[in-house]
Design a protein that fits this description.
The protein is of the alpha/beta class and 220 residues long. The chain contains eight helices and seven strands, in the order αβαβαββαβααβααβ. It has a seven-stranded mixed β-sheet, with helices on both faces.
């Protein structure tokens, strides 16, 4: 997959964040920052941007490549900041990767009374998520995350499903990417299942896969 398409996806997510929250002169916390692709696109607006992720290698790379962000190893389940500290808390495709109930409770704790929580989550039915599910099916975790949002003490004030795209040069490029993404050895049975799912599209060049995400805006 070309690096430009990774950046396109990051640009789409950052655009939605800017649409849903005023970031100017705000204290922000990004949960699940990875290598900082989203962080780099929102840091210029804020007074402070703290970005956390449990992946030590990703945090090290982010700290090297992105300036103006306080990158730290951590998860949303135990946020090392006092109560009512942040104006904006953002989960970037990360809520379902942790105990969603605990993470939402922690986000509420560190959020100011007039603050906002933004949650960006993948849609299980989207084309790229169906491809990923052949290697690691997270449908249950995504459903649990949405259930925890509904059952939390937070109020959902707005939500929207939006679309991005992943572009691969060919079948080999797509398969190499998905196996590398999960640090898995190539498996011909899984590869055949992915190819069967894509049907005739798998012989296209390039292969364009739709990615759908939902952004939800919450407040106390």
């Amino acid at each position: 997959m070309t690096n430009s398409m990774k950046e396109y996806s990051a640009k789409q997510i950052a655009k939605k964040i800017h649409e849903y929250a005023d970031l100017e002169n705000r204290r922000m916390l990004e949960i699940g920052c990875g290598e900082g692709r989203i962080s780099s696109r929102i840091t210029s607006d804020s007074t402070l941007l703290v970005a956390i992720d449990p992946d030590e290698k990703a945090i090290k790379k982010a700290s090297t490549n992105v300036s103006g962000v306080d990158f730290r190893i951590g998860t949303g389940e135990a946020i090392d900041f006092p109560d009512s500290f942040f104006d904006v808390v953002i989960f970037t495709l990360s809520l379902h990767h942790q105990n969603s109930k605990n993470a939402l409770s922690e986000a509420k704790r560190v959020l100011k009374s007039d603050g906002k929580i933004l949650i960006i989550e993948p849609i299980a039915e989207s084309e790229i998520e169906r491809i990923f599910s052949f290697l690691q099916n997270e449908d249950k975790e995504k459903a649990v995350a949405q259930e925890c949002i509904c059952n939390s003490e937070l109020k959902v004030i707005d939500s929207e499903i939006f679309t991005s795209f992943w572009v691969f040069e060919n079948e080999k490029d797509l398969l190499n990417y998905v196996f590398d993404h999960y640090s898995m050895t190539f498996n011909s049975n899984i590869a055949n299942n992915i190819s069967d799912y894509l049907g005739s599209k798998v012989k296209s060049s390039p292969i364009v896969c739709e990615d759908k995400m939902i952004i939800q805006s919450l407040c106390i």
